[in-house]
Amino acid sequence: MKIGVIGCGYLGAVHAACMTKLGHDVVGYDVDEAKIESLSAGKAPFYEPGLDELLAESLATGRLSFTLDPAELADATAYFVCVGTPQKRNENAADMTFVDAAVTTLIPQLSDGDVVIGKSTVPVGTAERLLAQIEEAVPGATLCWNPEFLREGFAVEDTLTPDRLVFGLPVGDGAEPSERVLREVYTSVLDLGTPLVVTDLGTAQLVKVAANSFLATKISFINAMAEFCEATGSDVVAIADAIGFDERIGRKFLNAGLGFGGGCLPKDIRAFMARAGELGVDQTLTFLREVDSINMRRRTRMVDLAREECGGSIAGRRIAVLGASFKPNSDDVRDSPALNVAEQMRLQGADVTVTDPIAVENARGRFPDLRFVSSVEEAIAGVDLVLLLTEWKEYVELDPDALKPLVGQARVLDGRNALDPARWRAAGWTYRALGRSRA
Ligand code: UGA
Is 409 in contact with 382 (CB distance < 8 Å)? Predict the structure, then answer.
């Protein structure tokens, strides 16, 4: 199958390389010259484990190319729309500029029998609007929806061996070619026994936001328990472990701490609420407002804990922050809880130094007033307090005995409940974490 991929960011670049791996001929298109240049050279413009290797392998087959010229897409039959839908400035709703531009660019390249496949996370109703636009311009072409569930850090694995596939088909003449093309694209994935849900366009768009809302709710649930634990001196990690053994609940996504950030969960729950408002059913999603505020409160609470540990004020105190990315195994700093906390502390007069294994450059671009260093040793030298805010493996495995002589005061705040409290305390550190008792 000849495939066009529109938008070569996290989603599109991974999708293009993975579709080549599945045996297809793929052209990736983007308006960003630097991105296309980098991808054409086999180098992902962001950190994603395994992607550079897959790009090199796919480019070497001669079946993958990247272009700035939409005319090079014209030969394809299946067109994946993989552009971003960020949150609008000062509004909860999603910004549809890139999706609309992608379809406008695509229309002149479409011919009879072509199928446009939406992957971007969009407000429900977008697909129907785009379908009407495509059908009017090219009556023999159609559009379906195939939402993406990949996680940054596991994007290649999630694309090649997904938990499930969802095909959202249009009503009428477009249904048959859409399903046929989707089944052909994903033949080898379906052959693995991957569960498939075939549904209508609206439901397919909704599946994606429902999934991310559920994940966000699960995280905020355990973080609400953490807040409660702080009032009673109980242990949120033991609660997560104990309830997580119940198969109906499950332990995944019950890690209490600083909460969720990144380019997806926060903006997706907000866009979902905005869409509910437009549809006159805002009450159905008011709980997501609470999910959002529990999540944001964790960041403020972390700063409060730092203040408490420093005896009531952080002004002039030297504080090290370990972690800048929104989660480990990523250099993505969009809505990073770690950087939010670091910046709040800086604004309150603390002398903050941040380090991260790979996200320092991206972080510096967004927070030029924070000080960044490249190693843990530099970050913690002589500090009054250490905060672990992104649970990179190398930070979780740090040796508290070896670090103690380097700091001014051996005090650590574990923002991700990722360190072993007993080990740090035994090494002479004061250890505190969100949702855990002091002792
Ligand atoms: C999320 C979803 O997990 C993907 O399924 C979805 O495809 C993607 O959004 C998307 O919409 O494109 P991602 O943003 O890569 O993926 O990150 P997650 O692994 O979901 O983590 C999100 C945030 O939640 C991180 O800041 C992480 O630190 C936090 N988190 C996660 C917790 O605070 N506790 C947990 O137990 C799990």
Answer: no
Residue 437 confidence (pLDDT): 80
DSSP per-residue codes, 333-362: -TT-HHHHHHHHHHHTT-EEEEE-SS-HHH
User: Residue 297's pLDDT is what?
Assistant: 97
> How far apart are the CA of 265 and the centre of ligand 1, in A?
6
Q: Is 18 a catalytic residue?
A: no
Atom 31, ligand 1: residue with shortest CA distance: 253
C-alpha to C-alpha distance for 74 and 111, rounded to whole angstroms: 8
Give the closest residue to 131 by CA, choosing from 119, 115, 120, 146.
Answer: 115
pTM for the model:
0.96
- The Cα 66–Cα 85 span in angstroms is 21
Does the beta carbon of 265 sit less than 6 angstroms from any atom of ligand 1?
Answer: yes
How many Cα atoms are found within 13 Å in the side-chain-facing hemisphere of 123?
A: 22
Q: How far apart are CA 133 and CA 143, in angstroms?
A: 10
**Distance from the CA of 208 to the center of ligand 1, in angstroms?**
13
Is the minimum distance from the CB of 259 to ligand 1 under 6 angstroms?
yes
* Regions in the chain scoring below 70 on pLDDT: 439
Domains of the chain: 2-194 (3.40.50.720), 209-292 (1.10.1040.10), 297-433 (3.40.50.720)
Half-sphere exposure of 312 (CA within 13 A, CB side): 0
152 lines ligand 1 (CB under 6 A): yes
Give 270's contacts (C-beta < 8 A, 6+ positions apart).
Answer: 87, 92, 93, 292
Which residue lies with its CA nearest to atom 5 of ligand 1? 149
Per DSSP, the residues of 92-118 read SSB--HHHHHHHHHHGGG--TT-EEEE
pLDDT at residue 49, as a whole number: 94
- Answer for the pair 44, 52: CB distance below 8 angstroms, yes or no: yes
Rounded Cα distance, 21 and 186, in Å = 11
CA of 402 to the centre of ligand 1 (A): 32
Which pLDDT score, from 0 to 100, does residue 218 have? 98
H helices of 310-427, in order, are: 337-347, 360-366, 376-380, 393-396, 400-403, 421-426
Report which DSSP code applies to 400: H
